[in-house]
Specification:
165 residues, 5-stranded antiparallel β-sheet
Length: 165
């Protein structure tokens, strides 16, 4: 809940952080009290092992161009806890400013692995998939990945591994 003072806020939960400026909340909905929240869902990798992934066309093109000579098989694993971020206003599909997320994860990506910041997109059938739309990776090093997203939803970090022919 918004308090007087610093306009920047950081929420931490388990292995994730969310950083935003309170101005995002006032730009996204009616004036009045503002509430933001972060919920961590550890252990979801067991349920989402074979969940489909949809990369944006541009990211997919870069990926295939970079690895086309030896790309045989691509598999993705959930590298971080799944987190859900929410805001008290109802208008969170498109924020005027990005929200920053920092994920801690147990391993560092190697040469044939690519880190992706993703969110869970529900479909009309009650199912869904991981997608990169509206989220970008800012940096990744060692066991931390920083993402920026222009909407609120459920987020995670995936690592795509490539088999060599």
């Amino acid at each position: 809940v918004q308090e007087q003072g610093d306009r920047n806020v950081t929420l931490s939960q388990n292995q994730a952080q969310m950083m935003l400026n309170w101005d995002v909340t006032s730009e996204s909905g009616p004036s009045g009290p503002s509430v933001v929240g972060l919920v961590s869902l550890p252990g979801m990798e067991k349920l989402l092992t074979d969940a489909p992934v949809a990369l944006e066309t541009e990211k997919q093109a870069v990926l295939h161009e970079t690895h086309k000579r030896f790309l045989q098989n691509v598999s993705s694993i959930l590298l971080s806890d799944v987190i859900s971020a929410f805001m008290g206003s109802s208008a969170t599909p498109n924020l005027n400013r990005p929200v920053t997320f920092v994920f801690k994860h147990p391993v560092t990506a190697e040469s044939r692995q690519k880190i992706h910041c993703v969110y869970w997109e529900h479909d009309q059938n009650g199912c869904g998939l991981w997608t990169t739309k509206g989220c970008q990776m800012v940096s990744t090093r060692d066991t931390n990945t920083t993402c920026q997203c222009t909407h609120l939803s459920s987020f995670a970090v995936l690592m795509a591994s490539y088999s060599v022919q």
